[in-house]
Design brief:
Layout lengths: L4 H4 L17 H19 L7 E5 L5 H23 L8 H20 L10 H14 E6 L18 E6 L1
Parallel strand pairs: 1-3, 2-3
Helix pairs in contact: 2-4, 2-5, 3-5
Length: 167
């Protein structure tokens, strides 16, 4: 559920909306962490060169999309730094949050899939793929006037991992 987004970005916002002070809504933070886990899981399963995309459609307004881009990119960079500086002996808080999300959601959800090709993966294996997975993720604004593009074809051999801000 995303019941905390309306307080952060009201549905009737205008093009002058600015990101409020304070942290991102919890649901948005968890969604980004889930995307990091998806990218790490796909790497662990040998799919490191596949495309991974997350769409954040929070506003149709291009000025607002730029605001959202900046705050999401800053948040992702904090996650990247935390993972870079984390160790098994001294894990950073974000790594503990990732592990908790892995254990409370991903393990159970994966177990429900009836797919004999979907092998079980443990946390240690995911942890070893977190850094390369998160380092590959880029944030882009994708709309009718943006210069960014989801260049899947040009990167078909290495794959792209992108959080696309659009509307």
């Amino acid at each position: 559920p995303f019941d905390d987004l309306d307080a952060w970005i009201p549905p009737d916002h205008d093009r002058y909306w600015k990101v409020p002070n304070g942290p991102l809504p919890k649901s948005l933070q968890e969604s980004i962490l889930a995307f990091v886990l998806v990218c790490a899981t796909r790497r662990a399963r040998g799919n490191e060169n596949e495309h991974n995309s997350m769409l954040l459609h929070l506003s149709r307004l291009q000025d607002v999309q730029k605001e959202i881009f900046q705050v999401i990119e800053d948040h992702l960079n904090k996650i990247k730094r935390a993972i870079r500086n984390s160790t098994n002996v001294d894990p950073r808080e974000v790594v503990l949050e990732l592990k908790k999300l892995w254990e409370s959601d991903f393990l159970e959800t994966t177990a429900e899939f009836d797919d004999p090709n979907l092998r079980s993966i443990n946390w240690d294996e995911i942890y070893s793929h977190l850094l390369p997975a998160v380092e590959k993720i880029k944030v882009k604004v994708i709309n009718g006037t943006s210069s960014d593009a989801l260049d899947y074809y040009e990167n078909r051999k290495l794959g792209v991992s992108v959080i696309a801000i659009g509307g």
